[in-house]
Amino acid sequence: MKKWLLSFAFVVLVLPFVQQCFPFITSGELSGDFTNAPDVEFSWAKWIDGSYQKGKADFCNDHLGFRPDLLRLNNQIDFSLFGECHAVWTLLGTHQCLFQAPYIEAYYGRDFVGYKSILERSIKLKAIQDTLARLGKSLVLVYAPNKARFFPEYFPENRMHEQKTVTNYEEYRRLGDSLGINQIDMNAWFVSMKNKSKELLFAKQGIHWTVYGEILAGDSLTRYIERTRHIHVPHPDWSQIEHSTEPRSGDDDVERGLNLIFPITTETFGYPVIKDVPDSGFKKPNVIYVGDSYAFKMLIFGIPGRMNGNCEYWGYFNDVHGINGTWATYIKDYDWKGAIDKNDCVALVYTEFNLRDLGSGFIDAAYDRYYPHKK
After folding, report:
1. Burial level of 37, CB count in 10 A (0-12/13-18/19+)?
2. 248 near 205, Cβ under 8 Å?
3. By three-state DSSP, how is residue 74 classified?
4. Which of 165, 200, 285, 360 can pair with 316 through a Cys bridge, CB separation 3.0 to 4.6 Å?
5. How are the residues of the chain apportioned to helix, strand and coil, as percentages rounded to the nearest 5?
């Protein structure tokens, strides 16, 4: 028995080295933002200052045979036995529901930026809206839903009964109503549909709205733009729904980031089958979407791109993507002012967590453009 145990231990120790030198099994790649350490060249200077030893150790560690499999095994043991999540921000709530800490912080008002800051930004946004309206253009502010507000009953036990204070979302919505800002509150809308929708709007395994929720939101937003601009837009038919227990298109984005062996839970997702309709006799608006990852997923996996003529996504007012094309660039290298002049509508789409920096600099930049004398 001792010999067998010794032989087994020897094989376990040697196998990763053999896999590293002579790969005979292909391990599945890890999810998330991983950058393997590069190899380092030997030099006496690096040896003396210790950088060669550290670099070589990091390289060997990141390229160890079976490393992805061993990481998944470690993560699964910690998750199953201790409820520990090896991913930035991720928390395990009750009923196997995953959250990310900043969304809970926003729900409780821990990231509140203050009434003065919100009022100042809201006034600027209203001024931009009025200017664009005089130029024949539209602006709309969309409050994307917050999973923490959708599932507060599933919070982790230690965060279930915290004291709630005023939030950025509540204050922006209140001031927006007072100032007359065009705004769509999908946060409240999704909560109101929580027990009515036949399809999942949020998954326990993800942090964003589901593909079904993204299509629903995109269609509703386009209908709002349609009414505002007094035009008729071609709306694809998505009444046919395919159901699957296998999540698609990022519906399990948080769970995948945990790199586990077994799924946390099983849910039934509804995936619309999208059928385009002839667009003759319709008018497609040209829309710029400035927003966070909720806006991005709505455009990539939703249907606004099918209903818009030109469709651009300005992620956090930093990177620019043409949804109906293949080009991409950065705001600093892009004529964003000219782009606004050529398009019909600007939609700001932000979830509650990102309202602490609503517009990501767009509001200040656009205000300075239209009101330079008020700097």
Report:
1. middle
2. no
3. helix
4. 360
5. 50, 15, 35
CA dihedral sign, ordered 111, 318, 205, 256 = negative
- Give residue for tokens 């956090």: 316
- Are 22 and 247 a contacting pair, CB within 8 Å? no
Kindly list the domain boundaries of the chain, sorted by start residue.
35-64, 94-374
Tell me how far CA of residue 317 lies from CA of 48, 61, 141, in angstroms: 45, 37, 15
Given a contact cutoff of 8 angstroms between Cβ atoms, the answer to whether 349 and 299 are in contact is no
Q: Which residues contact 338 (CB under 8 A, 6 or more apart)?
A: none
Listed in order, strand segments (DSSP E) in the chain are 90-92, 98-100, 138-144, 183-185, 237-244, 269-275, 287-291, 311-315, 319-322, 328-330, 345-351
Q: Give the pairing type, strands 328-330 and 319-322.
A: antiparallel
Side-chain-side CA neighbours of residue 91 (13 Å): 19
Per-position pLDDT tens, the chain of length 375: 888 888 777 776 776 666 666 676 777 777 776 677 788 888 888 888 888 888 878 777 776 767 788 888 899 999 999 999 988 899 999 999 999 999 999 999 999 999 999 999 999 999 999 999 999 999 999 999 999 999 999 999 999 999 999 999 999 999 999 999 999 999 999 999 999 999 999 999 999 999 999 999 999 999 999 999 999 999 999 999 999 999 999 999 999 999 999 999 999 999 999 999 887 889 999 999 999 999 999 999 999 999 999 999 999 999 999 987 678 899 999 999 999 999 999 999 999 999 999 999 999 999 999 999 775
CA 115, CA 166: separation in Å to the nearest integer?
Answer: 10
Q: Which residue has the tokens 């915290």?
A: 162
Q: Please, are residues 195 and 154 in contact by the beta-carbon 8 Å criterion?
A: no
Asked if 258 contacts 86 with a C-beta cutoff of 8 angstroms, the reply is: yes
Whole-angstrom Cα distance, residue 206 to residue 213? 12
Specify the pTM.
0.88
Residues 6+ apart with CB under 8 A from 160: none
